[in-house]
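Reading a protein record of the kind used here takes only a little practice. Think of the row as the fold of the chain written in a discrete alphabet. A record is reproduced here so that you can trace the correspondence yourselves:
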Amino acid sequence: MGDYSGHVPFLSNDDNATDFEKKTKTPVFMSTAKWVLKGLMWLVFIAWVSLMFFYPLEFVNNLFFKFINATSGNLFGITGSIFLAFTAPVLIIAFLSVLYLIISNDEDEVQEYAILYKKKASKPPRFRVWTFPVLVDGPFGVVSVAEFIGILLVGVFVVYGCAAYIIRNWHKISQYEASAFYKSVFMLERTGANLGLIGMFCLALLFLPISRGSMLLRLIDIPFEHATRYHVWLGHLTMALFTLHGLFYVIAWALERKLMEELLEWRDVGVANLAGVISLIAGLLMWVTSLPPVRKWNFELFFYTHQLYVVFVLFLAFHVGDFIFCFAAGGIFLFMLDRFLRFIQSRKTVDIISARSLPCGTLELVFSKPSSLRYNALSFIFLQIRELSWLQWHPFSVSSSPMEGNHHLSVLIKVLGEWTDKLKCKLSKNHREPEKLLQSQLQSLITASVEGPYGHESPYHLTYKHLVLVAGGIGISPFLAVLSDIIHRLKKGKPCMPKNIVIVWAIKKSDELPLLSMLNVESIDPVLLEALNLEIQIYVTRESEARLEEGKAFGPVTSCTYNPTVNRSTISSLVGTGDNIWAGIYVIASTIGFVIFLALLDVFYINPKGINIWWYKGFLLVLCMVAGVVIFGGAVVALWHLWERRMLASEKHYCNSNGNKVFDEAAPMHSSEFLLNLSTFRYGCRPDFKEIFETLSKRWGAVDVGVLVCGPPALQSSVAKEIRSHSLRMQHDSPVFHFNSHSFDL
């Protein structure tokens, strides 16, 4: 293992590993505080979800109304009671998550996993509910056991909730002597109302997954790319319930011959029907244009139509009033927090340090970033190029490792559609050498803005001793970052567990091979590669034989230099995944501002003047939410921005005084032959995952293997299907393959 054996904790002997474990042991107080916070958050979450889940039961419903009667004498009235029961738990969990994330950090997380791995190393590998694929085909895509349980619970809730309300309504109407017509109308209207209430419970969860930098997503370590799927599932369910809610009322009003009169009704006391119609129409437009066939046919139509969520939420508040809106206000408020912060971050333009164009039609953009902006190798960003569109934001995986440098972040962009084609043409316009552009030329060509980075809170790829990285085409991008991250960590003695890595890369043509040269092979030491046990399997599916010498595929790529003494515009750290303390203060201050504005309205306006107009109070509630975020949260963001500018100024002063270069000119990449020696090529075929996993099973034995997949849905399904099949027939000496997807479709 050469010189690295004394510096790499998990490639060293047991004595060194034990010393590392002692050095990285978390203080008892911090560990206890984290467990207490976890326990409190679980307690509040279970209580909140249980209240929603069992609310359709008559017993729970009666208890809740007793709670309202006992607490409605407060300053906020019945709105305050419902706020306390359904909105406050979400905000309390957000507060506790702020504290938890502040006392935690990435290195602590990796160290805890590492120590846990050592303790369980002697135990046989086990399945995990988050990484075992139970469904691999169908409308939900690849679904883990945990996700399947969640789908079942939501399905059970909707079915049993509807059944409970129907039985209760029928029992109530049966006590009265009434005509069949009256009973039918009553059942239609009551069932419609109950469907709307169940829809409100689903709406309470709908906005949580799309809060990209949300403290809650970071707490449970679910990245936005995965959470988007949950938003899609909940969106279909919520809109189905709201559509049935409206349909049942329309049928009932049609039977009573007062359809148009009711549809245009806007009551001051009670539900405003017209507002509900407008909200439902906005929701239906978003729903229809988000269906996969429509989204693939015209993504811009889907994207622009989805901005109607503002109309949907506002007129929903008009429709139901303030106290019913509080059933779902918690999730909507957290989304407002995230959206405002993203808006502030996205207003700033970002300098592009360099741009490269590869023969396969792939671009690399390198952005300037402050050293304080955190991300990991599996992060991604949203990119806007204003010369192409002021409204379109496109997600791209990060192709650089945070260990490579503190002042830059890079992405690989494959030219596939109209937007990416325009970007390449824009970069190549009026230049004889499109492969290499100077920064002064770049800034005159394009104006870039960046949101993010987002992704997993902890670098989970560092928690497996054995890794299989499966990529399709440009899906190799995040795995270049992963490989670079592992190599740099091992060189610097940082906590890192991977020891055996197999990369399976499927590409259409061999002109995509230069993507591997984007890895900074200059930093790879042969001894380290041997210790790492890296193997690369490349499948060129649309060529029967090699078109060029394989060695030339890894040739050097041009590079640019970066002098940090120049005043640069970096990616803003004003993002939910940025500084934990500032992000926490922002969340807390905005929430306090929201409550203060509500209290001031009740004390000085609503209660003294006897305001009892439902739709108006709903509007005031939304206004207080917005004011809390913009005024109180905006003040924190302004201070945060000043702090960021001061940090950047001190950073530049340090660089100037020390004459440091942050992004150095690349030396000749003399280590490129090692990548070639580690690679095997197969032409005219696709990966046989059954054969691959069987070979690895014999080689590695009974261990936990992390399988990361980045590619099209068909590739994910193929890998997940083989993992499930292998798991069902595995023996005691076989490894457990853990499926992890890094692909997403917005």
